[in-house]
Amino acid sequence: MSTASMILLLMVVGGATYLFRYSMIGLFANRNLPTWLKEMCSYIAPASFAALTVSALFIHGGEVSFALDAPKPWAALIAAVVAWRTGSVFATIGVGMASMYLLKLLF
Amino acid sequence: MATIRATKLSEFLAGCRDEAPLQLGVVPFGMLYAIAALAVGMPAWLAQVSSALVFAGSAQLAIVQMLSAAAGALPIGLTAGLLNLRHVLYSASVAEYVRHLPRRWRLLLAYLLTDEAYAVAILRYQRQASTSPAAIQDARSHQPLPDLRHWYFLGCGFTLWACWQLSTAAGLIFGARIPSDWDIDFAVPLTFLALLTLLLRERASQAAAMAAGLGVLAFAALPYKLGLVAAILMGLLVGFGVAKHKRSRS
Asked: Where are the domains of chain B?
């Protein structure tokens, strides 16, 4: 993406984010939020994080690839176990990166 | 008047102090974002400006990851927008506490309304009465002090903002020295993976994540990475469905 499009994109995202943050404080201060919105917000994070993770690991150039000799999916699997057992974001990143480097040497 | 000024300052500093421990988690994220942004070819100045403009960690990381996958502007904007939609909830939650403030205060506090600042400030609003210890002292002179808790909120927001900008800058300086074949941007999906694992306690969240993950594979062929947005929306619907099903059975 060109730098100009990136600037435009970031301005739009920044503007939207600010509007979200200001929305209830400034615009509809006396309205109650509908429950569906509250419920939806609680599923956005798990859905987005899962989609972003799977996409980074298995989609390359618009195509699904489950290559068994690629280091990253295996490193991510090890990292997932660490995340599950420890609940620590930094242990997950550390072990995941270290596994990726080791597997790169092996494959 | 001197008491009011002292109370403002002490509220502000108390906000800074209570927000400080959370920076242990924030600073590495800011650095990681900056390093990953450089790795996908975002100019350093833009990565820094983005930290001030968007000022939301997970959305900034999502933007960087999608840029690295050559996604189009529309899917990136939609994904980042969805990720930041939760701020509407925070906004609603603090609205009643800041309603009495002048507009310039509300505009400023809205800008500072991030996950971490909200988490700390809302505790101050909900747990403690509007009168601080200083105000109780002053009550002997029968002069009630106004609600100054927005200074506490400002302290939280300012601390987080400053740390986010500084850690972005630190990451940019540090990241420029990291060779690109180190694959440092792999840390971004690992971050999402770790955050995801923390969110999977409920059945409905598990279903939402599962559906979104499968959706990404199913919609991979859609242009500009729009499949990612479709997958997230599918995850939301499935999460809804499972929660509704569970409610109707119980």
From this structure: 2-182, 199-249
